[in-house]
Amino acid sequence: MTSPIKPPGGPKPPGAPDPATSGKPAGAEFSESMAAEQVGDVTAEQTSSAASVDAVSQTAADLKSGAIDAAAALERVIAAALSAPEAQLLDESGRAQLEAHLRATLEDDPALVQLVRDLERAS
Fold it and tell me: pTM (2 decimals)?
């Protein structure tokens, strides 16, 4: 009985690089391309994260200084979430749904409700 499943090391598809002649171990090109792609993703994520951290840090500083109250701070945090690059990929309907979800979560989640109360008491 023969099996259509072939073990590793079988015939190579046409055009596939041959590690024996390329001087690189098998899978090296794939690993290199993945590493390059990840570097690009990390840079974009770091930029996005840095902007988010700056917005939240500024909001926290304004809240501590008394320049804004808890309600204004929450509005800024929601606005920052809606202006994030990931949210910009959504259409208007999607952003409206995201905003509604964020606001509902702030009102319904017991941990977030307590955090909002703490913010209100502190300001």
Answer: 0.56
